[in-house]
Amino acid sequence: MADWRKSLRQHKPLAAALGTLAALLAVSLLVWLAAVRPQLGKGRSATISDDFSASAILQNGQTASQTFAFDEDLLAVGVEFYLPGDQPAGELELVLTDADTGEELARSTGVMEYILPDQYTVLGLDRQVTGAEGRRYTLSLTPHYTGDAVLAIGHSSGVALWQDQMTVDGEAVDGTMAVQITWQRIGGFLTRFFLLVCGFGALLVSFTVWAVLSRKVALPRLVFVLALGLGLLYSFVLPPYAAPDEKYHINQSFTLACRWANFFSDGEWQMGHVPTTTSFRRETDVNETLQDENTTVFTWEELTGTLFTTTDVPFDSHQEFAELQTDQNPLLYLASGAAVFLAYLLHLGFTLALMLGRLANLLVFAALAACAVRVAPFGKRIFAAAALLPMTLHLAASFSRDAPLLGLCFAFTALLLDAAFGPDRGKALAPGRLALLLGTGVLLAPGKLVYLPLAALLLLVPGVRLGRKANLKKGAYLAACVVLALVLNSGTLAGTTGQTAENGETVAAQPAATEASPTAARPEKSRPAQPDDAYEAEICGENTLESYVRRLYYYAEDIRDPAQSEVDFWVQALKEGDVSPVTLGQAFLFTPERIDSYTGGADILARASLALLGQDLSGTNADLAAYYDEGGAALVYKIVYSLEPCTQRFAELGLEPGVMDDRLPLDRTVLAAEVQAAQATRATQSVTDEADTVTYTPGYILTHLPDTVLLLTRTAVENGDHYLRTLVGGSLSYYSLDLAWGWVVLCYLLLAFAMLPVQGIALLPAGRGRLWCALAVALCCGLTVAGCLLWTPTHYETLYGLQGRYFLPVLPLALVVLRPRRLAAVPDGPRAEAQLTAALAFVQFGVLMNTMLAVIAR
Questions:
Q1: For a 10 Å CB count at each end of the chain, is N or C smaller?
Q2: Main-chain dihedrals φ then ψ at residue 200, nearest 5 degrees
Q3: Residue 855 in contact with residue 758, Cβ under 8 Å?
Q4: pLDDT tens digits for 657-702?
């Protein structure tokens, strides 16, 4: 009988774990049936033209056609309709053909009664059309009415940028049809991903149940396993670029890896100082789907589909991007940068490099968090709870510098409490423990200056704990903290970028061009098929950016009247510095179709000089054409844009001519995509408005105390719930995924439970030590708020940029000093630790599922 009971007790943890696993898998399956399975038809679309500011009426039997190019597969087509009158009845016939061969590729027939006005009506194709790069299609829509009501099809006012003109019944319409192409379905992948994440999460929770019931896994090890396992799940559910400001942290880590690769490279190019407005990655480190911070189900598919890809580019491959970094302090990016550098050496793809960088940060955090739980003399549950909060793990499993910073703060706090208030405070610290204490403090100090008061708490440690020359050690420690904080935060990426202009080539001074009439004699080859003297005089006589762009179209491509939208696009790109005049000219004169078309030096000289200068130098400076024999058309072009009149002409427009791009030939569509990417990047970055330059400076605060108090009050009232959410993880991603408030409440209840003291154990720190710890917490929080206040423009109604996660580094110490003295204490410490850890694991399972459902619902 006794043996049976002993066997039952031994198998109870395993039975409980298996029961937990079965229950959580059953819940996962039910949630999949209720909320995930209906979303398996989600599609991914791209718009050919999303402008439907005008419309054209379609009479019975009339066909509206639109020719377009598309690279991906075609699964369905959406078009925009208006209803001029009543709802029409009948059928709408859709036919998709190859624009070059006329071959019918797919068709569809829809019932008009289902058409909803002022939004896309999607018609599925009877068969999937396999895409190919640059393939052109013609979409034809023909209504067959059975009543008097008719449809009007939406199109843009004027032909859309880079698109063709639509037709109705064979007649051209001044616009482009609003067309949306569905090119990808999520299908069964969503099921596999959801159930796999839920299954792994259920295994972690079940393991936690077994560990706490069997007591075979110590709390520090359990915290390490849970932090690592749950962090990996967060890394997949919220992939790279999803964490707050993560794109800037990624840029800094990859730039650091590129600097190391450049140092070990045999190439001549030397990377020196890199400003925060510029980033470096390998040439292949680009993925539009992954680099979207708004996670979707297709981000999951792209992540898993490209996870194990490799690249053939050399480890020192580099590409400069006009993208921001966070700052000039590399200290907190050493782990993630080293992981990315390892990916460079192993020729791993972009996705795996991203995941390795995240994994490095996660490992650092998990190790430091486990260390904190292990060395803390009291409040172990507090450190475990703080380390396993959703927001903590979300940050830890990202490129954010908060990942190592949180680990350093947690470990330093635990080591400090042990040194200052631990049971052995009358004895000297072991050399290893002392080195760890001083090391974590020195490393966290320059991470973020607002946490310097936390690092300064070393002064509370009795001298006996530090051994001989304790005061000298404290002084050296404080000096190291201050010096590192000042030096690393003022910039450490020294040196200059030793790049030579124009690939190191120099162009000898050339004779200045003489003034000539825009219509001076020139070879007939360089003139458009039907010269227009009046138009030539207009675009050559006016020195404007628009005239320059029009000259490129006219003299390079024989286009007299380019679409105004295209002209405006390139003018804006020139004004904003997204392209230089010389590179833009290169994209017209040296396209893949035109680069080998020049018959000699006079030909390229005439075209280049007319485009750049509005003058034909082939008749007045014919000697320049001789350079064609030395370096081809490219050298003649370089000679022309190096002339003083050319430089002066662009200087009058406020521009530098620039130099040629290394790419020859240069496809203008590629250049246009790069310009659009630069514009999109700039649109996501902060641009300082003149009104935002007047902020709450110390002088302004002292003279406007009532306004400052009102600002802080409004902030607490209006944003208080946001700070509460973002402290524990109620809002994840870039605060675009709000979880149910129930999870937020549960997190705070678990923190409250973690604060409860154990019966019979005195509360520490006490007395003056408790006061100094509370003051350090208050100073850190106050400096955080003050930093945001100094950045807040005076016309704002609430504080700018404050987030609850900024208080996470001091959360464990705050909970320690705020522990209640008169509330009911916990009777059994180990049992409370087991209950808390198991509860945190269950909560994390629910949070991860909630997060996935929020992403799926997008």
A1: N
A2: -65, -40
A3: no
A4: 888 887 888 888 888 888 887 776 666 554 555 566 788 989 999 9
| Distance of alpha carbon 838 from alpha carbon 850, whole angstroms | 19
Distance of CA 852 to CAs 161, 205, 231, 289, Å?
37, 17, 15, 18
* Phi, psi torsion values for 546, nearest 5 degrees: -65, -40
pLDDT, averaged across the chain: 88
Calpha distance 588→553 (Å, rounded): 7
User: Which residues, 6 or more positions from 817, have their beta carbon under 8 angstroms from its beta carbon?
Assistant: 765, 770, 773, 774, 777
Q: Is 392 helix (H, G, I), strand (E, B) or coil?
A: helix
SS (H, E, C) 634-672: HHHHHHHHHCHHHHHHHHCCCCCCCCCCCCCCCCHHHHH
Residue 330 CB coordination number (10 Å): 18
With residue 342 as reference, give the H or E element that holds it: helix 334-345
136 forms bridges with which residues in the sheet? 69
Q: Containing H/E element for 508? A: none
Residues 6+ apart with CB under 8 A from 824: 756
Q: What is the DSSP letter of 619?
A: T
Contact by Cβ (8 Å): 303, 290: yes
* CB-CB contact of 527 with 551 (8 Å): no
Cα separation values, 839 from 68, 121, 468, 508, Å: 56, 48, 45, 76
Residues in the chain: 858
- pLDDT tens digits, 575-601: 988 999 999 999 999 988 888 888 888
Query: How far is it, in rounded angstroms, from Cα 830 to Cα 222?
Result: 13
Please state, as a whole number, how many other Cβ atoms lie within 10 Å of the Cβ of residue 510. Answer: 15
CB-CB neighbours of 708 under 10 Å:
17
Residue 143 and residue 88 in contact, taking contact as beta carbons nearer than 8 Å: yes
**What values do phi and psi take at 614, rounded to 5?**
75, 20
* Alpha-carbon 786 to chain mean position: 28
d(Cα 739, Cα 138) in Å, to the nearest integer? 45
Using the CB atoms, write b or e for 408-429: b if 16+ within 10 Å: bbbbbbbbbbbbbbbeebeebb
Q: How many CB atoms lie within 10 A of CB 655?
A: 18
Calpha distance 507→635 (Å, rounded): 9
**Structure-token match 């020859």, residue found:** 664
Where helices occur in 733-828 by DSSP H, the ranges are: 741-755, 767-791, 811-817
Minimum mean pLDDT range among 3-17, 188-202, 296-310, 834-848 = 3-17
**Dihedral (CA of 35, 38, 44, 47) sign:** negative
The DSSP symbol for 1 reads -
Cα–Cα distance for residue pair 396/400, rounded to 1 Å:
7
Q: What is the mean pLDDT of residues 249-266?
A: 93
Q: 523 preceded by cis ω (within 30°)?
A: no
Distance of CA 445 to the CA centre of its chain: 27
CA Rg value for the chain: 33
Phi, psi of 95 (to 5 degrees): -130, 130
Each residue of 375-427: pLDDT tens digit? 999 999 999 999 999 999 999 999 999 999 999 999 999 999 999 998 888 88
Integer Cα distance of 730 and 722 in angstroms: 8
What's the CA gap between 733 and 258, in Å, rounded? Answer: 27
Q: Which of 268, 725, 262, 284 is nearest to 493 (CA)?
A: 262
Q: What is the C-alpha separation between 467 and 447, in angstroms, rounded?
A: 28
Q: How far apart are CA 729 and CA 855, in angstroms?
A: 16
Distance CA 806, CA 415 (A): 21
**Tokens (6 digits) for 206:** 């079940």
Tell me the two tokens of residue 790: 């100094």
